[in-house]
């Protein structure tokens, strides 16, 4: 007997950043911070380093973080030896673990960022997903529903990490194979055998990517169904517009991988003329509709889009917690300032209920007063932190 109720047994474990050290990251020459497991509120003037700190935490997951910055950009101006981020994470499931990441020297590119777990180099930054899940919401995402499909695809692919930690790597491998195919097609006498091999790889990866996205859509839709009808953030209807994903839903019996491979082969003259691959999961779009208004998200007002996005991100956070067993660390950049008092209180209630540690920023400390001792407060100024 554990003495825990069924409800408690289902609750994901809290993962908390207990120590954070930064070296040469953005405007932080060096930072050493001890934290309690409570939420973290960072307030300070514009340009003081609040978002930079959230960005550093976002680098404790694979990918290019909440700003999608290049690694030279996040390295402090003038620092010759790259940047380093170290954190001690605490979780009931594994105790405490030291994770680290950084970039040495002038290395650039997605594969260059290294990850260390308890001092040992990991095969890739994907290993960080075994110790925490990090989900963010930042002002840069405000145009998600009106901007390019590529941004929504990236958002979608990050959501898929909730069910498949290898998904990000698969997407990168697919894109690399596609770039090789595009290059080969432009050559005057391209090697047909080589093209066959690349297309077979694209078909295998592309079908797996589409299947994982379709599965995620199914799960997120069921999660949204379980949320209260009259919550503070509107519910969304999400679906995928993409040939492969649609066929997975409508004709599951077909051998999609073989179909896609054949489509790529048959499409060579068309793609050669276009100078790029015109069919595949790299063209998929995530369509989001505002359910109460029955309207495409892109047609909603700025405030409505923001509320819809918050709702979607919180639904994803809940799903991630349920599937991984770890309540995600939330990075909420400049969110509280855009909400009225009622919605702000509701947001604080939801993040408590999700069970994870949340990092929040704003210029006005008073907006977070309601958190009381559920949060630790810091003021940020010129890349240094003081008690808030
Ligand atoms: N590579 C870098 N090296 C040194 N400083 C940098 C680097 N990149 C950005 N900065 C500085 O970091 C500061 C911005 O910090 P940040 O975006 O975290 O501000 P913020 O506190 O979130 O501000 P706001 O309230 O305006 O969003 C700017 O002054 C910028 O010049």
From TrEMBL:
This is DNA replication and repair protein RecF. GO terms for biological process: DNA replication; DNA synthesis involved in DNA repair; double-strand break repair; SOS response. The lineage of its organism: Bacteria, Pseudomonadati, Pseudomonadota, Alphaproteobacteria, Hyphomicrobiales. Belongs to the RecF family. PROSITE patterns: RECF_1 (PS00617), RECF_2 (PS00618). SUPFAM superfamilies: P-loop containing nucleoside triphosphate hydrolases. It comes from Phyllobacterium leguminum. The gene is recF. ATP binds at residues 44-51. The RecF protein is involved in DNA metabolism; it is required for DNA replication and normal SOS inducibility. RecF binds preferentially to single-stranded, linear DNA. It also seems to bind ATP. Keywords: ATP-binding, Cytoplasm, DNA damage, DNA repair, DNA replication, DNA-binding, Nucleotide-binding, SOS response. PANTHER family: DNA REPLICATION AND REPAIR PROTEIN RECF. One of its GO terms (cellular component) is cytoplasm. Residues 36-382 form the AAA+ ATPase domain. It is found in: Cytoplasm. CDD domains: ABC_RecF. It holds the Pfam family SMC_N. GO terms for molecular function: ATP binding; single-stranded DNA binding.
């Amino acid at each position: 007997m554990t003495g825990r109720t069924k409800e408690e047994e289902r609750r994901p474990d809290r993962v908390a950043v207990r120590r954070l050290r930064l070296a040469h990251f953005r405007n932080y020459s060096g930072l050493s911070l001890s934290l309690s497991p409570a939420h973290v509120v960072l307030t300070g003037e514009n340009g003081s380093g609040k978002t930079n700190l959230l960005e550093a935490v976002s680098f404790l997951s694979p990918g290019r973080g909440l700003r999608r910055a290049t690694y030279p950009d996040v390295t402090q101006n003038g620092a010759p030896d790259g940047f380093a981020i170290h954190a001690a994470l605490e979780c009931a499931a594994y105790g405490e673990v030291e994770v680290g990441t950084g970039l040495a020297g002038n290395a650039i590119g997605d594969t260059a960022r290294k990850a260390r777990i308890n001092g040992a180099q990991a095969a890739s930054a994907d290993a960080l997903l075994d110790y925490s899940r990090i989900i963010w919401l930042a002002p840069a995402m405000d145009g998600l529903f009106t901007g390019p499909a590529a941004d929504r695809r990236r958002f979608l692919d990050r959501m898929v990490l909730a069910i498949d930690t290898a998904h990000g790597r698969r997407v990168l491998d697919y894109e690399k194979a596609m770039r090789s195919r595009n290059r080969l097609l432009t050559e005057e006498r391209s090697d047909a055998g080589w093209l066959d091999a690349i297309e077979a790889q694209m078909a295998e990866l592309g079908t797996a990517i589409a299947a994982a996205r379709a599965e995620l859509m199914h799960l997120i839709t069921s999660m949204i169904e379980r949320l209260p009808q009259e919550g503070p953030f509107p519910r969304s209807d999400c679906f995928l517009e993409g040939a492969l994903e649609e066929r997975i839903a409508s004709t599951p019996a077909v051998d999609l991988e073989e179909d896609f491979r054949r489509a790529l082969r048959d499409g060579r003259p068309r793609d050669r003329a276009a100078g790029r691959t015109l069919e595949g999961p790299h063209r998929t779009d995530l369509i989001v509709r505002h359910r109460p208004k029955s309207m495409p998200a892109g047609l909603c007002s700025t405030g409505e889009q923001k509320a819809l996005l918050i709702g979607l991100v919180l639904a994803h956070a809940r799903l991630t917690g349920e599937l991984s067993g770890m309540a995600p660390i939330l990075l909420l950049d400049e969110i509280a300032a855009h909400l009225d008092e009622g919605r702000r209180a509701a947001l604080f209630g939801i993040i408590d209920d999700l069970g994870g540690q949340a990092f929040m920023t704003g210029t006005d400390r008073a907006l977070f007063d309601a958190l009381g001792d559920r949060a630790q407060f810091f003021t940020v100024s010129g890349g240094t932190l003081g008690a808030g």
